[in-house]
């Protein structure tokens, strides 16, 4: 069976407690965050970032998209690989709606891609 957490250019892994800086970089990119946040956009603090990371660890599905070092080299992408496992370029979260909206039988979907990796076909 093909790995469901691997695409042609990315691998996907769970959100880790060490991703605090990465999540902060995602949500401080106002243009990208405005398109993925299901709530009122407001200035970001570290406290909000930490709270979001905690809530993101409790979603139905939450993954970080990782560009492998080999794929970054092939495509001449500017890699920000910290520990040799690849460059986190974005995240996808599917979460339950608030209790007040559960009667709509829906879910919230958020996709965030760091600005320098946008418009390169990673989410298409």
From TrEMBL:
This is N-acetyltransferase domain-containing protein. The lineage of its organism: Eukaryota, Fungi, Dikarya, Basidiomycota, Agaricomycotina.
